[in-house]
Structures are given as C-alpha cells and as structure tokens.
Design a protein that fits this description.
There is one protein chain. This protein is of the alpha/beta class. The protein has 2 domains: 13-237 and 408-422, Glycogen Phosphorylase B (Rossmann fold, 3-Layer(aba) Sandwich), CATH 3.40.50; 250-405, 3-Layer(aba) Sandwich (Rossmann fold). The protein has 16 helices and 13 strands. It has a 7-stranded parallel sheet, sandwiched between helices. Helix 10 (275-288) links the parallel strand 8 (263-266) and strand 9.
Length: 424
C-alpha cells in the first residue's frame, strides 16, 4: 500500500523516542520516514550512536544519553542473562533515561505535538500525565504485554498450556509485583512525586500503556490479539528500515556471487559477548560443508582466521542479504526475526534474554524454524539442527508462505493512518 500525503487537520510535530538498541530504533526510523513522506515534521529522540541514520532518513535528531552510556551498557555481561538482564536494562536504560527524556519532551506544546514512544520510554508516559502531551505507546513484541491468555516465556521460564487460567494470572501478577515493580517502582514513584503525580504499580501490565493509543508493530498472524491486552491496542505489522546507501557491500556481494547461498549467523547488534557463539558457528559450518556469513560489529569476537567459505561483515542491508541466503541463525531479536520471515528462509533461534525466548517459541510454533538455547549451542548440535531445517521441505514451504504474509509497506501505511486518525 503506497504512502499518500496527509491532507487532514493542521499537522503536529511528531516526536518519536526509544531507549533501546538498533532493533528498537530502526522501526521508529521506518515510521519516521513514512510520516515525513506524508508531510509531517518528525524528530527522533534516541541514543547518539544513531544520529547518522536519523539524519540520513531526513529526520530531526535529539540525543538521549551519551556514547559512554552505550559502552557501559554493552560491556555489562548480565545484559544478556535470562534473569538478571531486566535489572540491567532497568538500571542502565529505562530508569537512567526517564528524567532526561521527560525534560526533553516537557519543553513541547501539547497542542502542537504528538509523542510516539516505545513502551520502556517511561519519560514519555510521564510527560503525557504531567504535561498533557498526546502519546501513542509502541510495543515491538508481544511478550511485554504479560498476557495470561497467551503467556510468554519470561526469564527462561514458561507456563505450559495445561496450567489453569487462575494460576497463570497469579504467576504473572507475582512476576510483576516481585520483579518488575520491585525493580522500577521506587525510582519511578519518587520522580512521580516530584511531578505531583500519585504512585503507581502494575507498571508493565497497566501503567506504561497510553490510554489514548497502543500500537503493536507485529501482525495478528504472528501474535493473535488477546482479551487482556490494552483496550486501545491496534496491530499494524512489522515495520522495517534500511540505512541510507542500502546496497550490499562489494565484498559481501562478491561472496554471494561466488557460491551457494550461505547460512547467516548473528548474535545481535548490541552483543559484545559472543565469542563462544561464533566459534561454535564456524565449527558447525565446517561440519556441514556450507558457506556462511558472520554478522557482528565487534570482530574481536571472531576466531583469528576464518576459512575462505566464511565471510565476516560488520553491516549489511539485512533484507538483501537474507534474500540470497539459505537460512539464518540468530538471537531472537524481533527485527531480525521479521526480516527472516520476510525472506522466507528457515531460522534457528538461540535466545539469550528478554523477549527472545517468546520470539523463538513463535518461530517454532509457526513451523519455520527451531530453537537451540545457548548452553546447548555446540558445533555438533547446531550442525544437526541446521542440516535438518535446510532439508525439510515442509519447513521450507512454511517459511516461503510466511514471506507472502509479511507486508512492510502496508504495515507502515496503517500505522501512519492510526496515528493521523487519532491525533493529527
């Protein structure tokens, strides 16, 4: 569905914001580019490392935090721990940027501004309450919705389908009360008191969702809407963005031209602790006798010398790479997973923390891939699972079927439409 120029009421300045890494920023970049194409003025508030991408997309930019903040977060080993990871994100991102983000947004006139914020950008929700700024909350993945009807695996702990609904609700309520609220409510409520706001609880299941509009950047065939989701929630679909100059690097294009489609391996754009993962990947590829591309911005994680059938690349336009690849092995980030679904290739997911467990389980349930947890990601197991996926005609057919359902353009157009109809 092509984007069309907006011709409704007088336009507002749209402020997009997120406190995450590339997987969080790029969907906002895609949305920002779409809104700009429809005639809106758009500013993205995010980590300074993305300034070049933001400006290349023709958007205004406001930095949130510093490069030193990013380095500190990346070097925190517990960032990828299945249980401790939430505490790291709370300390180094959610709570750290809560006040600075609020102070940025509080400068804007509510009559002339719309804020579209990722769910963990607490400063945006506070600006809505304290300053009256219109707000749409964005969820990039369904796991954060904490649904008892479709419970996600949290911290590596899942709830079997046979467990009664009452227990599911009690279990999730306990996680929220004794983990989420215990981590975040003290700092959040202290700042709320400064702003003259009452204290809150049930931060994830209730408070963080805007009462005006909640957008799910994933389609209903990936996660079916549930009765306990936010009342004002709309699912739009996966939204993508490719950096400016989105052509394959010459070395990558030449490698792809030189042989069979490779297996792609990535541990995520923010993971600096993937040495064992890439070592196992290289040995698995050697066992299979296949070619591979290893994606990481941190080459110090890689073995000292790669054989000629394995190529390292720091950055590629993922869509163009995956369209020419046999399969992908990845951490379970929602953006990588969406690109693999669009490419129609099998996936082997190695979830570490956060939403990655739930994303991996959905890949398995759709029948387009498999899951292999990091502690079981040995060269032998990885080779066996990959070999099976690459030879399974049913998996290949289902993956191709999913590629027909991913529609980035319609998702973007629908998201813009929901925002314009509600606010602009």
């Amino acid at each position: 569905m092509p984007l069309t120029l907006y011709s409704g009421a007088p336009m507002k300045h749209v402020l997009l914001t997120t406190v995450g890494s590339a997987g969080d920023v790029y969907p906002m970049l895609g949305l920002g580019a779409g809104l700009r194409a429809r005639g809106h003025t758009v500013t993205l508030v995010c980590a300074p490392i993305f300034e070049g991408d933001v400006r290349a997309a023709g958007l205004e930019f406001i930095p949130l935090g510093t490069l030193d903040d990013i380095r500190a977060a990346l070097n925190e080993p517990d960032l990828w721990h299945p249980v401790k990871g939430l505490a790291v994100i709370a300390r180094l991102a959610i709570l750290k940027y809560m006040r600075p983000l609020y102070e940025i947004l509080a400068r804007y006139d509510p009559e002339k501004t719309l804020v579209v914020a990722s769910s963990l950008a607490f400063g945006a929700r506070l600006a809505q309450e304290a300053r009256g700024l219109p707000l749409a909350t964005v969820h990039l993945q369904p796991s954060i919705l904490m649904s008892a009807h479709d419970p996600a695996e949290l911290g590596g702990v899942g709830i079997p389908d046979w467990v009664p609904m009452g227990f599911r609700k009690a279990f999730l309520a306990g996680i929220e009360r004794f983990t989420v609220d215990r981590l975040m409510a003290p700092d959040l409520n202290a700042f709320r008191a400064e702003l003259g706001l009452e204290p809150v609880s049930k931060i994830f299941s209730s408070w963080m969702n805007s009462p005006e509009l909640v957008l799910g950047f994933f389609p209903p065939w990936f996660a079916e809407p549930q009765p306990d989701w936010p009342e004002k929630m709309q699912l739009t679909g996966f939204i993508k963005h490719e950096s400016a100059g989105g052509e394959l690097p010459e070395t990558v294009a030449d490698f792809l031209d030189a042989g069979d489609p490779p297996v792609v391996f990535t541990a995520g754009s923010a993971n600096v602790h993937g040495g064992d993962y890439f070592e196992a990947a290289v040995r698995a590829v050697e066992t299979l006798g296949r070619r591979a591309v290893l994606l990481t911005r941190f080459p110090e994680q890689l073995p000292d010398a790669l054989p000629p059938n394995i190529l390292h690349a720091e950055w590629v336009p993922m869509r163009k790479l995956l369209e020419r690849s046999a399969s992908i092995v990845h951490h379970g980030g929602i953006g990588t997973m969406a690109q693999a679904l669009a490419a129609g290739i099998p996936q082997l997911v190695t979830p570490l923390a956060h939403d990655q467990f739930d994303n991996a389980n959905r890949v398995v349930r759709m029948g387009v891939g498999d899951r292999l947890d990091p502690r079981r990601f040995t060269p032998g197991r990885a080779a066996r699972v990959l070999d099976r996926l690459l030879k399974d005609e049913d998996v290949l057919a289902r993956a191709k079927g999913c590629s027909q359902k991913v529609d980035f353009e319609t998702a973007l157009a629908d998201t813009c439409k929901f925002l314009e109809e509600e606010f602009l």
